[in-house]
Design a protein that fits this description.
The complex is a heterodimer of chains A (about 300) and B (about 240).
Chain A: H1 2-33, H2 40-58, H3 71-103, H4 108-130, E1 135-136, E2 145-148, E3 151-154, H5 155-177, H6 179-189, H7 201-226, E4 229-230, H8 234-249, H9 254-274, H10 280-294
Antiparallel strand pairs in A: 1-4, 2-3
Chain B: E1 2-11, E2 14-24, E3 29-33, H1 40-47, E4 57-65, E5 68-69, H2 75-80, E6 84-87, H3 99-105, H4 113-126, H5 128-132, H6 143-156, E7 161-165, H7 173-188, E8 192-197, H8 200-206, E9 209-214, E10 217-223, H9 224-229, H10 231-237
Parallel strand pairs in B: 3-8, 3-9, 6-7, 7-8
Antiparallel strand pairs in B: 1-2, 1-4, 4-5, 9-10
Helix pairs in contact in B: 3-6, 4-6
The chains are: A mainly alpha (about 300), B alpha/beta (about 240).
Chain lengths: ~300, ~240
């Protein structure tokens, strides 16, 4: 019994780390721009594909690089490159799709719709370029299996969990302790006054997309290593769920988004273990609905006050 | 120092300023007075280069500061390169940051760490109330304290020219005089100020010179004392 609980707990932590990494990106962009970046789940998908192409290229499958590079070096190269390229995609989307609307003062609704369309473009763009066949992610490092209290955990699962906590710590540090983070918080409160402080608004916004997308890329890579089958629609549902997790946690606060991701994962795993996996989403989301109607700002959210 | 020539600006297709000209010389306090909707805020937004969607679009004329045109530069450069700051209407402080963080944020583009230190001291000397509130989230401040913070923030950008949009708005009379005394003190330290006020009486009392703006055009100008005695200005803006 105890073993099962520990095992499920580890599974939930693993699932939660993907949700959390994605939820953090939603939270950052929402916090700074009040924009629900519905393309974010698909950026996670793009991240997984970028990781796939980086890894296979380094393994020498395309012939540019001599095969025989050890897997851990391939991984060490793939991680930063995936994060960098994925953040490039996120920043590009901001530049071509969101910024023009922002500069024209478009209503937020239109920006959100643009984000939704951008997500669809990414999904079907991928489908058009790569076809409907699924890609299977290569094995880069051998799975080592550890035992904790009778339950087993692979090195890959552990890596996902540890990474998400490290990234959260780093992000929390950036937001609360650095000047850039302070500027991001300022943008979230009052965009108008930011340039008046001598701060280039566009650079803060680009940095926000850079951070959010690189985390989605990292999540995509970790996900692909653990569940090595990629398809163009893999980001849609995971993205939605991460978004909901961020809102339930309190989307204005990165702690809320992080904890929301794990909360959702624990609910899902618990429901699937006690009832059946068919009831998983039904019951977990009903519970989340309950949480929101009890506290509409999310667990960590604070209502905003302004003084005239 | 600042010279605005024949400035015409539009919001969409509506012209809001019909070619105004005025200047501010080093060490002066100059005030723009006028009724609601006369174009006072628009003028300051134009100088700060805050364009659409919130700000106006400049269609004609020029704004120069120390001989350099501001037309080609972006709003954050007006602050970081030209050293001109704006304490905007409605204060726009960052309520989710502490008082100290608000001040620190204003030093974002500065690298002169020695002067930053003395500037903190200058702000806290000018507004001792802010010292007590240093660690508080600034949305918990009273209206008067928020206004002090807005002015303090403008100072922390390292500006030597500060524009103030209705610094007396929402303040009780006593606090209002305190604020103007602080501004006067700042001016005594060499700060040039361009001040917008609906309360023309107090503005003219503290300023050296003034311009009267009426529906996008300057209709009177002169020394503050002269304007105060001008019968038309008296009748329209000083309550007879």
């Amino acid at each position: 019994m105890l073993e099962t609980i520990i095992q499920q707990g580890i599974n939930a932590l693993q699932l939660g780390s993907y949700y959390s990494l994605i939820a953090l990106g939603y939270c950052l962009v929402y916090g700074v721009l009040l924009l629900i970046n519905f393309a974010h789940g698909d950026i996670f998908m793009v991240g997984a594909y970028i990781a796939f192409f980086c890894a296979t290229a380094f393994l020498g499958k395309f012939g540019y690089i001599d095969p025989g590079m050890p897997g851990w070096i391939v991984l060490a190269l793939t991680v930063p490159l995936t994060m960098l390229l994925t953040s490039g995609v996120g920043v590009f989307i901001e530049r071509v799709a969101y910024r023009p609307l922002r500069l024209k003062g478009a209503n937020r609704l239109y920006v959100v719709i643009t984000a939704l369309m951008m997500g669809i473009v990414l999904e079907y763009g991928n489908l058009a370029m790569l076809g409907a066949s699924r890609k299977s992610f290569p094995t880069l490092v051998p799975r080592t299996i550890f035992e904790i209290g009778g339950a087993t955990v692979t090195s890959l699962k552990l890596a996902a969990i540890v990474t998400s906590f490290l990234v959260f710590g780093l992000l929390q540090w950036i937001v609360t302790r650095t000047k850039l983070g302070m500027a991001m918080r300022a943008v979230s409160y009052d965009k108008f006054a930011v340039p008046l402080m001598g701060i280039p608004l566009d650079i803060i916004i680009v940095f926000t997309f850079f951070l959010g997308s690189s985390m989605a890329g990292l999540a995509g890579l970790l996900y692909a290593m653990n569940f090595p089958v990629l398809d163009p629609f893999m980001g849609a549902l995971v993205g939605w769920k991460a978004f909901i997790a961020a809102v339930v946690g309190g989307i204005g606060d990165i702690r809320g988004a992080f904890i929301g991701g794990f909360l959702l994962a624990f609910l899902e795993v618990t429901v699937a273990a006690t009832f059946s996996s068919e009831l998983r989403d039904l019951i977990s989301f009903t519970i989340l609905l309950g949480i929101l109607s009890w506290k509409p700002t999310g667990l960590f959210g604070k209502p905003r006050t302004t003084k005239i | 120092m600042l010279s605005v020539t024949n400035l015409k600006v539009k919001y969409g297709n509506t012209e809001a300023l019909h070619g105004i000209s005025f200047e501010v010389r080093q060490g002066e306090i100059v005030t723009l007075i006028g009724a609601n909707g006369a174009g006072k805020t628009t003028t300051l937004l134009s100088i700060s280069r805050l364009g659409p969607p919130e700000g106006p679009r400049i269609v004609e004329g020029d704004i120069t500061y120390n001989g350099q045109s501001l037309l080609g530069i972006s709003p954050h450069e007006v602050v970081s390169r030209m050293r001109m700051a704006l304490a905007p209407e409605g204060r726009h402080i960052f309520g989710n940051l502490t008082v100290e963080e608000n001040l620190k944020l204003a030093t974002y583009a500065r690298t002169d760490s020695d002067r930053i230190k003395t500037d903190y001291q200058r702000v806290y000397d000018l507004f001792p109330r802010l010292v007590e509130r240093r660690k508080q989230r600034s949305e918990s401040l009273s209206g008067g304290e928020q206004q002090m913070l807005a002015v303090g923030r403008a100072l922390m950008t390292g500006a030597d020219f500060i524009m103030l949009d209705e610094p007396s708005m929402g303040l009780a009379p006593l606090l209002m005089y305190d604020m103007f005394r602080a501004l006067k003190e700042l001016n005594g330290q060499g700060m040039t100020l361009l001040l917008i006020e609906q309360n023309a009486r107090i503005a003219l009392q503290f300023a050296h010179r003034g311009y009267v703006l009426d529906t996008g055009a300057i209709v009177a100008e002169g020394l503050a004392q002269e304007l105060m005695n001008n019968p038309d200005v008296k009748k329209a803006y000083l309550g007879g």
